[in-house]
Design a protein that fits this description.
heterodimer; A: mainly beta; four-stranded antiparallel β-sheet; B: six-stranded mixed β-sheet
């Protein structure tokens, strides 16, 4: 069974631009969560989607948004990029809600903002 | 909110030795505790998990123990090998109706394990 696939693997953007990251979950998984990983802050929760509905949202500004499609694929968007948005963005999927079922991560998208 | 403390932040062992990483959590309602291994350039990979109705779980050289009374759980790696070198994260679940801004899993800050040949 294929794992969680994230595209692209690397992105370089300049301040003020916007970016869209894509995630394809494991087949059959309906929950998709997004995390931001930085050396100083560790893994920080962005949001979780389940059956196209946002269930939880982390403490990130409104510039960070996401959505989930009917096939469970998910995208996240960051508008008006700032230098501090440089990070590894990880997508993870689970069969049902991530609170009690294994969460499987992709290899992430490395975003660099210059 | 829930908090997960992980120690140590770095750990260096000789090949063949054992390694132990410890985590404590604050939410007594947490009932699911996964461990992840993250190698350079990759996402975290689930290596073992334990639920609150079990005190210990073992998978080959890896074991996890859980003490719900003390609210701590530990990862034990025996007969370490160079390929065990990675960053390890523990996590604790929140109750489903508590998730909110922290999500459903709270992660520790990670332990960088180095196994010297």
């Amino acid at each position: 069974k294929a794992g969680v696939t994230q595209t692209p693997r690397y992105l370089i953007k300049t301040r003020g631009q916007q970016v869209t990251l894509s995630c394809s979950p494991i087949s059959g998984h309906r929950s998709v969560s997004w995390y931001q990983q930085t050396p100083g802050q560790g893994l920080q929760f962005l949001f979780e989607y389940f059956s196209e509905t946002q269930r939880n949202k982390g403490n990130f500004p409104g510039r960070f948004s996401g959505r989930q499609f009917s096939n469970s694929r998910s995208e996240m968007n960051v508008s008006t990029l700032e230098l501090g948005d440089s990070a590894l963005y990880l997508c993870a999927s689970s069969f049902v809600s991530s609170y009690n079922s294994p969460l499987h991560f992709g290899n992430g998208t490395r975003l660099t903002v210059t | 909110g829930e908090n997960v403390e992980q120690h140590p932040s770095t750990l260096s062992v000789q090949e063949g030795d054992s390694a132990v990483i410890k985590c404590t959590y604050s939410d007594s309602a947490s009932n699911y505790f996964p461990w992840y291994k993250q190698e350079l350039g990759k996402g975290p990979q689930l290596i073992i998990d334990i639920r609150s109705n079990v005190g210990e779980k073992k998978d080959q050289r890896i074991a996890v123990t859980l003490n719900k009374t003390a609210k701590h759980f530990s990862l034990h790696i025996t007969e370490t090998q160079p390929e065990d070198s990675a960053v390890y994260f523990c996590a604790a679940s929140l109750t489903e109706n508590y998730g909110g801004s922290q999500g459903n899993l709270i992660f520790g800050k990670g332990t960088k394990l180095s196994v010297k040949p």
